[in-house]
Design goal:
2 domains, alpha/beta, polyphosphate:AMP phosphotransferase activity, 10 strands
Length: 478
């Protein structure tokens, strides 16, 4: 493409980009991730700089990733990408994406073929989940012949304009392997929900025009698609009570006060000792508490944290998502709260609200909460693969016991803040919540993150079972 033709096209390119971007900024139907990958010297930085000049830069952010920081190394690999996801209406341009470490490790033989394939499978799942949560993913691979790459690097070196010239020359030595690996990545991870666009980059004007046109067209198509999602409640067969896993919990289990005090001191002492072990620095602990309203989640959590050093844990009470959280995929707010290794994150309600409250109340459509089971399993597998311990508790009480506790809360001044009109409304859907909880346990109790079903009719019994389970899981690992 000649510079004259490019100059003539430039106003049209700018208009197309802004025409696509401005309605997205205003209406916030989705967020956009633009991944810029490819060979060193292909002009990725120049192309992105031009995009910044042509689009509304106030709603663009550039996220560049190199080697993980100490903070990132203490968390699962995808954590830093989840942390930086843009809100709906915003666009993030990504350098050094989740593909770079996989590509680098493959080129330098740090991983074998099997590990390479598994990494690509994990990336596909990650991108599919983002796409399902209204993230437009556009991936660009800038291609460059070896001789042109060498000429570009010589120019860069002569101008002394690059900070990583040495690394770029090293990459040139592996040009063939990088090209082959890039081709494999593009072929295996280019999906309808996250396509790759391969752009020959010998001609800077052609490269930048192709990038701009593709971004503008893709954003406009996504805007025009406007898929609507159903918000139907789960089907309930009239007159038939469905048996679920939570229906099998023995609610008669009890513990007398004296035995409770003895066991509480025992397990709190064990938990304290375990949390002080040197080997704790190699793992993180994630505790998720779910259950019927008034089942005693808060009381159980207080008994867990009592023997722990406050510097090592954080309790996250989860309520309805904020506007900031609604503007991103639902797992974003939980990824942000993933603890560093050596620490505990305790969730009073969790990501499982997606398949409980959001399912029953119709806040999530049928397809959305149905696919959430796999997304949650994959999230928990990411944590456990990184060495974390995930403990999940369902605290169960009977309908009659819940009514008794609700009334007690209303009659006790210092407990009145625990009861609301919403609690009473949820109680009317007891059967639907029971079915949802049963499906949740059936579909998300895995060998790496099993559910512990806790009879909470007797609070003393529930608290000891929770403490004992955590201690056992820690002892197995440490």
């Amino acid at each position: 493409m000649t510079k004259k033709i490019f100059k003539k096209m430039e106003p049209e390119l700018r208009e197309a980009l802004l025409s696509a971007q401005l309605p997205v900024i205003e209406n916030k139907p989705y967020s956009t991730l633009i991944l810029v990958d490819g060979l060193d010297g292909a002009g990725k930085g120049e192309a992105v700089a031009r995009l910044y000049g042509w689009m509304d830069a106030r709603h663009l952010v550039c996220n560049a990733y190199g080697e993980p920081t100490d903070e990132a190394r203490l968390r699962p690999p995808l954590w830093r990408y989840w942390r930086d996801l843009p809100a709906k209406g915003e666009t993030a341009i990504v350098f050094g994406s989740w593909y770079q470490s996989v590509l680098r490790d493959w080129i330098y033989k740090k991983i074998d073929e099997d590990a390479f394939e598994k990494a690509l499978v994990r990336i596909r799942r990650f991108e599919e989940m983002l796409s399902n949560e209204d993230v437009l993913i556009l991936k660009f691979w800038f291609l460059l012949p070896k001789d042109v790459q060498e000429q570009r690097l010589k120019k860069i070196e002569k101008k002394n304009a690059a900070r990583h010239v040495r690394a770029d020359w090293a990459a040139l030595k592996h040009h063939k392997k990088a090209s082959e690996a890039g081709e494999k990545i593009v072929l295996e991870t280019s999906k309808g929900y996250a396509p790759w666009f391969v752009i020959p980059s010998q001609d800077p004007e052609y490269r930048d025009a192709a990038l701009a046109q593709t971004v503008a067209r893709s954003m406009s198509l996504k805007l025009d698609d406007g898929e609507t999602r159903s918000v139907s409640a789960p089907p309930v067969v009239s007159g038939v009570k469905r048996e679920t896993a939570v229906d099998t919990i023995d609610l008669t289990e009890k513990l007398e006060k004296e035995e409770y005090q003895e066991l509480r001191e025992k397990y709190q002492r064990i938990l304290s000792d375990l949390s002080d072990r040197k080997s704790m620095s190699k793992t993180g602990v994630v505790l998720a508490f779910q259950g019927n309203d008034a089942a005693g989640k808060g009381g159980a959590i207080r008994r867990v944290i009592r023997p722990l050093d406050p510097r090592l844990y954080k309790v996250h009470p989860i309520s309805a998502p904020t506007d900031e959280e609604k503007a991103r995929p639902y797992l974003w707010r939980f990824w942000r709260r993933v603890p560093r290794k050596g620490h505990f994150a305790i969730f009073d309600r969790s990501w499982y609200e997606r398949v409980l409250v959001e399912r029953v109340e119709g806040f999530a459509g049928h397809d959305d909460w149905l696919r959430a089971y796999n997304e949650i399993n994959e999230f928990e597998q990411e944590l456990t693969d990184f060495g974390y311990i995930v403990c999940k508790f369902w605290l169960a009480i009977s309908e009659d016991e819940q009514l008794r506790r609700f009334k007690a809360r209303e009659d006790t001044a210092y407990k009145q803040h625990k009861i609301s009109d919403e609690d009473w409304r949820n109680r009317l859907k007891w059967d639907q919540y029971t079915i949802a909880a049963g499906d949740m346990v059936d579909r998300t109790s895995t060998h790496y993150a099993p559910w512990t079903l806790v009879s909470s009719e007797n609070k003393r019994h529930a608290r000891i079972k929770v403490l004992k389970t955590i201690c056992n899981r820690l002892e197995e690992r440490l």
